[in-house]
């Protein structure tokens, strides 16, 4: 969750990244086990609970509330300006709760959510910002209900002949909080090291410049 997205960058985000967002969020939604969540909704007394981590302008939350209209949805993001955009987009949706917060490896235990609270957690286009992605995913794992699912998506580090090193240098020059992009295999390894069991994964393109991956995991056995 990067504070790079403030001011004009926040207000123009949806226009600037329209095609990229459509493709990455569509891939994320396709990876969710929707029948499993619908079954949970029928068989438990309380509504399905969904958390979108680094929710940005709320585009994914908007799509999730359309898919799961009875669910309780939560969004957290570091940027107050991005949350302002989300609040406008999601106005008159009392079952969606937005808060400002950060994903830091040493602060995961301070997130204002109880363990085993969420049936679904999503996290899109964010892993490359994290200081310790394994620790953050472990923290998110603790927030999953038994058999809950974590769906993580991000753009991938591209192999030769793509000039990745100068490309990533340019990304860091524009957005200094960028840390590191991961290959699909590395992302699965990080998930497994965090105690998650990878159920499915998919690689896809979000434009000629961007190669992406999306992974669905659940609470693993330790």
The biggest beta sheet reads: 7 strands, mixed
Structural class: alpha/beta
Number of helices: 9
What's the CATH architecture name? 3-Layer(aba) Sandwich
Fourth-tier CATH superfamily name: Vaccinia Virus protein VP39
CATH topology: Rossmann fold
Q: What is the mean predicted local confidence, pLDDT?
A: 93
Protein name: Methyltransferase type 12 domain-containing protein
Organism: Dictyobacter halimunensis
InterPro entries: Methyltransf_12, SAM-dependent_MTases_sf
Domain Methyltransferase type: 51-150
Topology:
Blueprint: H1 7-11, H2 13-16, H3 18-31, H4 34-43, E1 49-53, H5 59-67, E2 72-77, H6 80-89, E3 96-100, E4 118-124, H7 133-142, E5 144-155, H8 164-174, H9 184-193, E6 196-205, E7 211-219
Parallel strand pairs: 1-2, 1-4, 2-3, 4-5
Antiparallel strand pairs: 5-7, 6-7
Characterize the structure shown.
This protein is an alpha/beta fold. The protein has one domain: Rossmann fold, CATH 3.40.50. Helix content is about 35%, strand content about 25%. The chain has nine helices and seven strands. The protein has a seven-stranded mixed sheet, sandwiched between helices. Helix 7 links the parallel strand 4 and strand 5. It is globular.
Characteristics of this structure?
alpha/beta, Rossmann fold, 9 helices, globular
Task: Characterize this entry briefly.
The protein is α/β, with parallel strands linked by helices. The chain has helices at residues 7-11, 13-16, 18-31, 34-43, 59-67, 80-89, 133-142, 164-174, 184-193, and strands at 49-53, 72-77, 96-100, 118-124, 144-155, 196-205, 211-219. A hairpin with a 5-residue loop joins strand 6 (196-205) and strand 7.
């Amino acid at each position: 969750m990067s504070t790079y997205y403030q001011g004009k960058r926040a207000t123009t985000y949806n226009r600037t990244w329209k095609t990229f967002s459509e493709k990455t969020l569509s891939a994320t939604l396709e990876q969710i086990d929707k029948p499993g969540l619908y079954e949970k909704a029928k068989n438990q007394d309380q509504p399905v609970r969904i958390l979108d981590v680094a929710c940005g302008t709320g585009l994914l939350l908007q799509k999730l509330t359309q898919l799961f209209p009875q669910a309780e949805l939560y969004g957290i993001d570091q940027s107050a300006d991005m949350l302002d955009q989300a609040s406008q987009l999601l106005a008159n949706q009392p079952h969606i709760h937005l808060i400002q917060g950060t994903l830091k490896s040493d602060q995961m235990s301070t997130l204002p959510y109880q363990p085993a609270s969420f049936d679904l957690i999503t996290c899109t286009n964010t892993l490359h910002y994290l200081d310790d992605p394994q620790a953050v995913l472990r923290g998110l794992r603790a927030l999953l209900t038994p058999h809950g699912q974590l769906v993580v998506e991000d753009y991938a580090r591209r192999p030769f002949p793509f000039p990745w090193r100068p490309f990533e240098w340019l990304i860091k020059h524009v957005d200094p909080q960028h840390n590191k992009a991961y290959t699909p295999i590395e992302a699965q390894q990080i998930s497994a090291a965090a105690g998650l069991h990878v159920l499915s994964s998919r690689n896809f393109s979000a434009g000629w410049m961007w190669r992406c991956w999306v992974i669905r995991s659940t609470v693993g056995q330790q």
